[in-house]
Every structure is written in C-alpha cells, then in structure tokens.
C-alpha cells in the first residue's frame, strides 16, 4: 500500500471524473489520499470528499497563495472547524499552510499573520502541519521552531541539504513527488537519494507536479506507485520495501492517519 500525502482532489481539474480518479488510485495500490484545504472556501468540500472515498483523509488550513482573499476572522473559523473535527478519524492535521516567496505580489506580513496564527492553533491542539515551503524554507522552519511544532510534512521540498536537515531535526518529514522522476531535477534527485529514508514521504500535489511520463498533463494519485518506484530506483531499494517504508513514514508524520484503517 502507498499513501499520497498531498492531493488536491477537490480541484476543478477533477470535476469531470473525480470518482474514477479515486477508484483508479485505489486499484493502483494507493490506500490513503490526504486532501489538504486551501481556505474557508473548501473546508467543507475536502471533509466531504475524504468521507466519500475509501481511504480518504483531509487537513484544514489557509494556503499562503489564498491569504489575499482571507479575512482575519478565518483563523477563528479554522480553529472552530478543527475543534469540531477532532473526533473525525478522517481528519489528520493542519494544512496546507506556510509561506510562498516565489509568486510576486503577495504581502509578506499577511502571509506571516496567517502562518503564525495557524501554528499557534497547531500547538494548541498538538496537531501536525502540512507546509508549503516554496522559496521559503528558512522562514517556514523559523516559524516551526518558534511555535515548537515537531511533526508534519514540508510539502514539495526543494531546498538544500542543510535546510533539509533543519526540518528533519525539527521532527518534520519531507514530501517528494513527480519532480524526482526528471533526470534534470538533479538537486531533488540527490536529496531523495541521500537523505535519511525515514524522513521521506511521497505525494503527488495532483493535479500539479506530474511525473515525467505524463509531463504537462494532469497529475493524479494513481501515479504514486510510479513515483515511489522512481524513489526506490534512486535509493537502490525494492519497490515493496519503499512502499512499506514511506507508508510508515507518513503515519509517523500524520499519526491520525492510523485512526481509520485503509
């Protein structure tokens, strides 16, 4: 069994065939799919999707790219939604949260307001976080340290070995996906090959970050076994061993995944 630790199954790209996508992933051996929220506009949607499909799970959070339209009161709404979800075995943590310094025009103070506010909530409820770290690895880890967050995933990690070690030392896991299947992605491939295996989880970020064999096409969670096989090849491991290991790593990163069986 594999776990896709990051899939935006609620995205409009899946409107025409969402049921088929979930069924195909299950048939390919993907036992769990974690669907992170991006803001108040899809809290209910990701929860409903996680319950609609076997193996579904969800996280609730305010994505940095959606902070321009977020309202200050959304933090209290998020807190209430999380409190109401604590008895839901499909709820696994807070995400997608973080910082983005790749996209021009985002207000840093606004991003920091929501990021730090969500870290406070994570600390209050002792929940893991799923972090967006695009061009922001150092700033995101600074927040994790300040708020003493020691569990979760740095999604789509693409930093240095030193930054990777900082996340690992903080207790975080690192998410790797389709990028590692491209030979030109040398840094990501080196990281995936050389970092401690027990720090790695696999993800798609579907519909984005497709692997090399569907370049520029829609990504989907059924691609996880192929991505995992690419990771296994880089590390000289058996595919089955990689599946078992990354599944154990995902359960360590997001312990509530174990509350309901796949």
From TrEMBL:
The record's listing under InterPro entries reads: DNase_TatD-rel_CS (IPR018228), Metal_Hydrolase (IPR032466), TatD-like (IPR001130)
Q: Where does a divalent metal cation 1 bind?
A: 6, 8, 96, 205
Q: Where does a divalent metal cation 2 bind?
A: 132, 155
Q: Which UniProt keywords apply?
A: Hydrolase, Metal-binding
Q: Pfam families annotated for this entry?
A: TatD_DNase (PF01026)
Keyword Heme attached: no
Q: Name one GO molecular function term.
A: metal ion binding
Q: Which domain of life is it from?
A: Bacteria
Coiled-coil ranges from the UniProt annotation: none
Does Hydrolase count among this protein's keywords? Answer: yes
Q: Which PANTHER family match?
A: D-AMINOACYL-TRNA DEACYLASE
Similarity-based family: Belongs to the metallo-dependent hydrolases superfamily. TatD-type hydrolase family.
The protein here is known as TatD-related deoxyribonuclease
In its UniProt entry, the species of origin is given as Paraburkholderia graminis (strain ATCC 700544 / DSM 17151 / LMG 18924 / NCIMB 13744 / C4D1M)
């Amino acid at each position: 069994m594999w776990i896709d630790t990051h899939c935006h199954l609620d995205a409009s790209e899946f409107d025409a065939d969402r049921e088929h996508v979930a069924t195909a992933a299950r048939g390919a051996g993907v036992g769990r799919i974690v669907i992170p929220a991006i803001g108040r506009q899809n809290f209910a949607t990701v929860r409903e999707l996680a319950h609609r499909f076997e193996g579904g799970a969800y996280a609730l959070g305010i994505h940095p790219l959606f902070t321009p339209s977020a309202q200050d009161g959304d933090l209290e709404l998020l807190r209430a939604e999380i409190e109401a979800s604590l008895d839901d075995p499909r709820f696994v943590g807070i995400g997608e949260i973080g910082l983005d310094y790749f996209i021009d025009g985002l207000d840093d103070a606004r991003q920091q307001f929501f990021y730090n506010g969500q870290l406070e909530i994570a600390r209050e409820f002792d929940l893991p976080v799923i972090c967006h770290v695009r061009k922001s690895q150092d700033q995101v880890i600074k927040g994790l340290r300040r708020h003493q967050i020691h569990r979760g995933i740095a999604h789509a990690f693409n930093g240095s070995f030193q930054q990777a070690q900082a996340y690992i030392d903080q207790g975080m896991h690192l998410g790797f996906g389709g990028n590692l299947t491209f030979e030109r992605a040398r840094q990501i491939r080196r990281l995936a090959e050389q970092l401690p295996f027990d720090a790695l989880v696999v993800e798609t970020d579907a519909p984005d970050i497709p692997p090399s064999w569907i370049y520029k096409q829609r990504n989907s969670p059924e691609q996880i076994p192929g991505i995992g096989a690419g990771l296994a090849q880089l590390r000289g491991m058996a595919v089955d061993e990689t599946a078992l290991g990354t599944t154990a790593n995902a359960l360590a990163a997001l312990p509530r995944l174990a509350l309901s069986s796949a």
